[in-house]
Amino acid sequence: MAAKNKLQRFAENLTFDNLFQLQYEELVKGFDLKGNWSKNFFNNDNEIVLELGCGKGEYTIGLAKRYPDKNFIGIDIKGARMYLGLKEAKDDKMNNVAFIRARINLIEMYFGKDEISEIWITFPDPQPRETIAKRRLTSSWFLNMYKKFLKPDGVIHLKTDNIIVFESTLDMIKEYEHELLYSSYDIYNEGIENELTRIQTFYEKIWLGRGTKIKYLEYKLNRNEG
Description:
Layout: H1 3-13, E1 19-20, H2 24-27, H3 37-42, E2 48-52, H4 58-66, E3 71-76, H5 79-91, E4 97-101, E5 116-122, H6 140-146, E6 150-160, H7 163-175, E7 179-184, H8 195-198, H9 202-209, E8 215-220
């Protein structure tokens, strides 16, 4: 993306009232929507679903259209990519969508206890080297953070093209006795006809075109672990 185009998108991002991007110094003072998203932003009591590493927002937007009775928040650090989701939400007058531009290791500062019902982790950075495996969004470090705002019966969805992420997460689910609800090495070979196959990201379409199998896990956290 050309630098000029990025700057234009950053500037327009500032005009969207459903985008939140705070400086760290502001965040540590306390985010006023933490624990109050339903009451003070969405103005309803519907469940809130997060997409971590939302990129262009395809899943956040796609899920919000399929489930208008739920609220959706996409989180990513790349503001120029997020612009596309922001613009679509504005153009389509979607009141159940918000975006946060932030590093995911800071998200506990944005949400209160039991505020989130589901988490979607869509095609995360695989962090393939074992020395930095704790940076994976499904590592035990991140899962313990999610417990601070995910409801006790909350569900985590992982959708990935990467076998390392998929199998390391499976191993972790077994090791820490999380509850595995569903597992697939190839969702497009299972006859699934829902958001797993009906919503596709830009890069997912590229990987599918190359014959890459898309993998999926659905699980609940063991609250007695960690």
